[in-house]
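In response to the reviewer comment on reproducibility (Comment 2.3), we provide here a single inverse folding case reported in full, input and output, so that an independent group could reproduce the run without further information from us. The structure tokens appear first.
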């Protein structure tokens, strides 16, 4: 299992059956591979509730998600105007949004829509989802391509919203927002506490359960 699949599989464990879930571009689109899709309602902001995966020979080029990827439709799926879809998001009717990120900082701010000096492909629905979804899960690599940390003390890229991300899942670790700060609750794959500390500049606490497991108490 590659690191993206590992992150997606772990994100699926954060989801409650029969919840409404919006999936961002990239790693989030892999999450349905680890769900019983009959027990979850997947939402895409371009106007479909009841998104499912689709076999290659059944692809309809007119049926895509917000990332332009082909999707299927579940039994009972609903179509609606994108304005209605965003009203659904802004009205607090999406239970969980799973989003990628360029950076997340120790205050919980997410930067995922622009890199200074580079072209902006499109803002998408991230700003609305971060403001309107009941729970925010961030899935990302722990470091960027050049090896620099992505979970940092303070975002250097433009933040997407003031909303705090509830859960951060990377290829090295899982963090949960608790009592005004992030708590490291789990190590991913073969990662060690020392590696996570070395590749993270954001402040975080370590859960007692993890310390006990690692023999640090």
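Designed residues, in position order:
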């Amino acid at each position: 299992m590659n690191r993206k699949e590992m992150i997606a599989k772990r994100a699926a464990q954060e989801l409650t059956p029969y919840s409404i879930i919006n999936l961002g571009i990239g790693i989030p689109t892999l999450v349905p591979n680890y769900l019983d899709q009959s027990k979850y309602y997947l939402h895409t902001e371009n106007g479909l509730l009841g998104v499912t995966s689709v076999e290659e020979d059944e692809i309809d080029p007119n049926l895509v998600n917000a990332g332009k990827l082909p999707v299927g439709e579940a039994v009972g799926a609903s179509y609606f105007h994108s304005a209605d879809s965003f009203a659904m998001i802004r009205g607090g009717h999406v239970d969980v949004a799973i989003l990628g990120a360029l950076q997340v900082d120790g205050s919980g701010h997410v930067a995922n829509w622009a890199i200074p000096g580079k072209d902006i492909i499109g803002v998408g629905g991230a700003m609305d989802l971060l403001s309107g979804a009941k729970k925010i899960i961030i899935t990302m690599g722990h470091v960027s391509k050049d090896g620099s940390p992505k979970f940092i003390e303070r975002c250097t890229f433009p933040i997407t919203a003031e909303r705090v991300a509830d859960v951060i899942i990377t290829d090295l670790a899982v963090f949960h927002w608790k009592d005004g700060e992030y708590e490291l609750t789990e190590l991913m794959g073969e990662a060690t506490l020392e590696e996570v500390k070395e590749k993270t500049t954001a402040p975080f606490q370590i859960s007692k359960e993890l310390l006990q497991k690692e023999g640090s108490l």
